[in-house]
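Translate sequence into structure tokens.
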Amino acid sequence: LDIFYEDDSIIVVNKASGMLVHPAVGRFSGTLVNAVLHHSQKLSDMNTAMRPGIVHRLDEDTSGLIVVAKDNIAHAKLARQFEKHEIFKKYVALVEGLVAFDEGLIDVPIGRDNRHREKKAVSYEDNAREAVTRYRVIRRFPKKKVTLVGLYPKTGRTQQLRVHMKHLGHPILGDPKYGQESNFPRLALHAQSLGFKHPRTHKWIEFSCLPPKEFL
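Result follows.
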């Protein structure tokens, strides 16, 4: 467990790619929750017993920063910031192809894929939910036909960045659901920065980590 920051209210963890955030059907060990419980017995219990302290989540194959709440007050205040889209989140990703524009906004709703129920897709049906992502090109690699981008989600829909980049025509490398698993050793998506008002001091704090070495 890579503890990036810790105080009496929160723990910020730099999650490894391939680690599930909380137990699920058939997966009860080796998760972030298991590791955090081993590290600290003091976690919020607002969620189910399977998800103590978990305010938000990252996909199993996405690496990077995630905040865990130690008590219910911290959990409630952080959850409210996520609900109001007041959290700053920056991801970095390697995507297929050379992205044409230096920056842009992807504002298309996301719902269930009608043909593959385990997947998400851009959808304009009544049950689709608003999803907004801003992107900025960090560097283009013409020889490899790959672009390193910064992704700034305003909303937090499940698999939003993966679906939006596919919709843009530039799937994230190593994505078995929305791209090609074989073109990178892992899903090339990393939660690099996370900023929010501290639930106890109410001061703005922001954490940033280096992108994984394989990205560079």
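Note: The longest strand covers residues 132-141.
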